[in-house]
Amino acid sequence: MAETSIEAVKLVKQFGPLTAVKGVSFKVKKGELYALLGPNGAGKTTTVKMLTTLLKPTSGEAYIEGYSVLRDTIKVRRIIGLIPQDLTADDEMSGWENVLIQAKLYGYKGREAEERARRSLEIVDLWGAARRKVSTYSGGMRRRLEIAMSLVHDPQVLFLDEPTLGLDVQGRRAIWDLVREFKKNGITIMLTTHYMEEAEALSDRVAIIDMGEIKAEGTPEDLKSKLGGDKVYIEALTPEEAAEAFSELGQRGFNVKLENSTVIVKVSNAATSLPEIARVLSERRVKAVNIVRPNLEEVFLELTGRRLREEAFDSFRFRVLSHKIR
Amino acid sequence: MLSETYVLFMRETKRWVGRKPVLIVSLITPLFWVLLFGKSFNITNMINVGDLALPQEYYAIALKIVEAIRFRVFEIFGSQDYFTYMASGMIVVMTLFQGTFSGVSTVFDKRLGYMSRLMVSPIRRESIYLAKVAASVFRALVLSLTLLMVAYIAGFKFKEGFTVIDLAAAIVVVTLTSLTFTSIFMLVGFLTDSHEVIFSTANLVNLPLMFTSSALFPISQMPEWLRVIAGVNPLTYASDLVRYFLIGKSMSDPWLVFAALAAASLVTLVVCMKLSVRALDK
Q1: For the segment A25-81, what is each residue's pLDDT rounded down to a tens digit?
Q2: How far apart are CA B143 and CA B5, in angstroms?
Q3: Residues with Cβ < 8 Å from B280, sequence gap 6 or more?
Q4: Which residues of B touch A96 (CB under 8 A)?
Q5: Distance CA A291, CA A274 (A)
Q6: What are the distances in angstroms from CA A183 to CA A33, A186, A191, A198, B40?
Q7: What percent of chain A has pLDDT over 90?
Q8: Cβ separation of B112 and A87 shorter than 8 Å?
Q9: Residue B222 CB: number of other CB atoms within 10 A?
């Protein structure tokens, strides 16, 4: 048990007729960085809310460091930190005041509360702006303040819900660096995101979640290798040309798929297979050749038949709906 | 739990003090009522014989009649001028207005996600509710006392032999009244996610509650049916008590009413707190 930090056992959450999370189970080891990757409305936030005692599961159980999120709520809350999607800081107060209030809510008094607030602000590199009103902060600074507010009590387990949503590249890098720093210090981290680069860059293991179910789980490398290597997209001038190329490549023993005027060749390594493909294609009129290295976006596409981000509109409706039902 | 409540109370209060325009705006309406309406409705001056062209022999009788009417006015209003009567009622009405809107901050905290932050921290849910109620009661007290100060400058007449103890008693009454209203309407804030609900409930209850009480007019002048309604309106008892302590208007069993108000406020506080905490955990 010492090894497991977060454990979800068949978590289900229903909002009226709508099942947002359909029996999700996973284990996160101590010090591990685990990412829930999925489109908006996949059930990521609902899962995090159940793990952080904000929502009662309809059924199922979950444990944080061995404490039940249903029965030992206060103990769970003492050891976790949640960085929510929303910007919760009071913008009429200074960053310092916001973090100090947080320290006091965790029971620290006087000197110690101030010391902890200062340290949290230093970690996220906001000490210099601590006395300024939050309304003067940039988006990235506000996000870092949210993190500082969740650090005052030295959480053992940190939940980050879409921590880089709406940030520019620079702001995102700063958050990534912080997350890596936390991991170095042995904090167990659970991150939700719909940016596959984020999951790929940060996490030890990824769970791909869609429509409230975990579709696949593993290290980013594992998941990508399941795709069976690279894909070469050959776009021919006409569907007839494509069909010709399709059969010729098939005869040579390539794993091929035909989609209108595009031939998709699956190879273990595009760099070494390309010369031979090119030889076969020399007779054909080809408009373009694209090599797609395996990434989590492709994994998601393979598993669900959809892209991570094209769901934006539907998931918005989903959220509005689930909000109303609640 | 007390220290958590205090931390959250200070947060609310700091935000309020930081917003001076809001503070001023919430004072303006009651001040207008008291200064413009209260001052212009000068009942004592209506009954005057000063410039009446009366024969000498009637003049003395007329003066006697005026005296009798003024005595009656004093009996009804507990004061010779309506301004003093009304100002003492408006002090209590202020607490109603402040209370009915108290849920707004809760709704905003929920919408902005601050409530989630509070709910993942290891504090008692009760302290969230208590801090919000305490902050709202504090605001009501500050506004009521400011109103009283302005009224005093504008000619408010305290009773003869008025002491600090009377003032303290009146403050306790205002606090208990505020506690009652705030407890109830804070619950609305915990139940709903929409500030429109708060505004419409506030607008729905504010005026009817004010007019069906003795805050603006004495009950004795009301028709029978209205008197029945006013008799169950807590605002009536609160304004009667404040008048009893500040301007010395007589009332029956003031201390019994006082005790009843205290009991009512504590019961509503506890019941509404339990319901609010339950609403949070849904």
Answers
A1: 999 999 999 999 988 888 999 999 999 999 999 999 999 999 999 999 999 999 999
A2: 22
A3: B115, B119, B125, B128, B190
A4: none
A5: 9
A6: 7, 5, 12, 15, 72
A7: 49
A8: yes
A9: 17
Asked whether the ipTM of the predicted complex exceeds the cut of 0.85, the reply is no
Tokens of A222: 């594992």
Taking only the tens place, the pLDDT of each residue in B55-110 is 778 888 888 888 888 888 888 888 778 888 889 999 999 899 989 989 999 999 99
Torsion of the alpha carbons at B270, B260, B3 and A156, rounded to the nearest 10:
0
Percent of chain B with pLDDT over 70: 99
Set of chain B residues whose Cβ sits within 8 Å of the Cβ of A149: 117
What pLDDT shows up at residue A150?
Answer: 93
Give the pLDDT mean for A114-143: 93
Overall average pLDDT of the A106-129 stretch: 93
Unique residue bearing structure tokens 């489109």: A39
What single letter denotes the amino acid at residue B207? L
**Phi-psi label, residue A212: left if phi above 0, alpha if psi -120 to 50, beta otherwise:** left
Q: Partners of A141 in the beta sheet?
A: none
Residue A266 and residue A254: Cα distance in Å, rounded?
A: 7
Q: How far apart are CA A26 and CA B2, in angstroms?
A: 39
Nearest CA in chain B to A152: B121
SS (H, E, C) chain A: CCCEEEEEEEEEEEECCEEEEEEEEEEEECCCEEEEECCCCCCHHHHHHHHCCCCCCCEEEEEECCEECCCCHHHHHHHEEEECCCCCCCCCCEHHHHHHHHHHHCCCCHHHHHHHHHHHHHHCCCHHHCCCEHHHCCHHHHHHHHHHHCCCCCCCEEEEECCCCCCCHHHHHHHHHHHHHHHHCCCEEEEEECCHHHHHHHCCEEEEEECCEEEEEECHHHHHHHCCCEEEEEEECCHHHHHHHHHHHHHCCCEEEEECCEEEEEECCHHHHHHHHHHHHCCCCEEEEEEECCCHHHHHHHHHCCCCCCCHHHHHHHHHHHHHHC
B11 vs A contacts (CB less than 8 Å):
90, 93, 101
By C-alpha distance, the chain A residue nearest B121 is: A77
CB A266 within 8 A of CB A228: yes
CB A312 within 8 A of CB A240: no
Nearest to B122 among A87, A90, A106 (CB): A106
Residue in chain B nearest A72 by alpha carbon: B122
Instruction: Name which of A84, A104, A106 is nearest B116 (Cβ-Cβ).
Output: A84
Q: Which string of DSSP letters, residue by residue, matches B204-243?
A: HHHHHHHHTSTTTS-GGGS-HHHHHHHHH-HHHHHHHHHH
Largest CA distance in chain B: 84
Task: Considering only the C-alpha atoms of chain A, give the largest distance between any 2 of them, rounded to a whole number of Å.
Answer: 80
Q: What is the Cα–Cα distance from A155 to B247, expressed in whole angstroms?
A: 58
How many contacts (CB atoms, under 8 Å) link A and B?
A: 61
> Are A87 and B11 an interchain contact pair (Cβ–Cβ within 8 Å)?
no
Dihedral of alpha carbons B268, B271, B277, B281, sign: negative
Give how far A255 is from chain B: nearest CA, Å: 50
pLDDT tens digits along A147-164: 999 999 999 999 999 998
For A245, the token pair is 């190329």
Q: How far apart are CA A20 and CA A14, in angstroms?
A: 6
Tell me the two tokens of residue A116.
């902890």
